[in-house]
Design a protein that fits this description.
Blueprint: H1 2-6, H2 8-30, H3 45-73, E1 76-81, E2 87-93, E3 108-115, H4 132-142, H5 148-161, E4 166-168, E5 180-182, E6 187-193, E7 196-206, E8 212-213, H6 216-233, E9 238-241, H7 255-268, E10 277-282
Parallel strand pairs: 2-10, 3-7, 3-9, 9-10
Antiparallel strand pairs: 1-2, 4-5, 6-7, 7-8
Length: about 300
């Protein structure tokens, strides 16, 4: 019921739209056969108006119930069409699932926000195992594809090939992990399987206590650079994008605000979109985040 309440505006809009369509059709039919003949000839004008209003309200109510069920079932909404026939979607789901894209048999590119040193040690000190960063890397280690060291080597090699800019920081500035801090918005591309490539987005900056920070300016710049990277490196394969900054990067933004900003950014930069983009809201967010009324 909470999900239905969250999407009440969308449900009412759909019900009103289809009520208007049905009444327009009935009006067209009425030009050939008077629907008023179905009522007793002795009925007053007031009675006929009352019956019409009752039908209108009843039809709208029935459609509201129907679309409530539709919204409860629906997990993906198409937001808009970008360039070259590609589309942007928002959906509930799991960023790691191949079912989040329209062609599961093809490669998909999954965006994972990480710290700007691109650390790979998941020890609940440097990287929390509860963040998307930590969960992703633990999955890679569990599958046997990489170890902490081999993944670190692959990431650093990719950043070197890209000639990514970085600054060398001191141990006093960050007591654990890598000490090469890359520019915000730097992306490391790592192939996980034949059908899954990760785009690790350098977003947050760790302080000495390994506390993550991201300013508003850094957040905006990071997303813009990510979009430019996807334009160059997606190879026209679908991009799966979580609510970037909703985890431990201290953006101080709500998931709803992040979702709305992502959509606005993508709409303003349609020319940079050359693949389908799927913005994924965690399944547990169904009861708190409405995806149907995103502008």
């Amino acid at each position: 019921m909470k999900r239905i309440w969250l999407n009440r505006k969308y449900i009412a809009k759909l019900a009103s739209k289809w009520t208007s369509i049905i009444f327009a059709i009935l009006g067209f039919i009425g030009t050939f056969a008077s629907l008023g003949d179905l009522l007793p000839e002795t009925s007053s004008i007031q009675y006929r108006i009352f019956i019409s209003m009752g039908i209108l309200v009843g039809l709208w109510t029935i459609l509201c119930v129907f679309f409530s069920g539709y919204v409860s079932w629906k997990r993906r909404i198409e937001l808009f069409e970008a360039s070259n026939g590609y589309h942007v979607y928002v959906q509930y789901g799991d960023v790691f699932s191949s079912e989040e894209v329209l062609k599961p048999e093809e490669r998909r590119n999954i965006v994972i926000p990480v710290n700007r040193c691109f650390d790979t040690i998941v020890d609940d000190d440097l990287i929390s195992s509860n963040t998307l960063h930590g969960i992703t890397m633990k999955k890679m280690y569990a599958s046997g594809t990489y170890t902490e060291q081999t993944l670190n080597n692959v990431i650093q090699e990719n950043l070197l090939v890209q000639k990514s800019e970085f600054e060398q920081i001191r141990q006093e500035d960050k007591r654990s992990g890598n000490l090469s801090r890359y520019s915000v918005g730097t992306v490391a591309e790592v192939k996980n399987t034949e059908n899954c490539t990760y785009f690790f987005l350098g977003l947050s900056k760790f302080d000495r206590d390994l506390h993550a920070h991201t300013t508003n300016d850094e957040y905006v710049l990071a997303l813009m650079r990510l979009l430019e990277f996807c334009n160059i490196r997606s190879q026209k394969y679908a991009v799966v994008m979580p609510l970037i900054g909703a985890g431990a990067s201290e953006t101080k933004k709500s998931e709803r605000d992040i979702l709305e900003y992502l959509v606005k950014l993508l709409k303003m930069n349609k020319e940079l979109i050359n693949s389908d983009i799927h913005i994924v809201v965690r399944d547990s967010g169904k009861e708190s985040i409405a995806i149907t009324d995103i502008k």
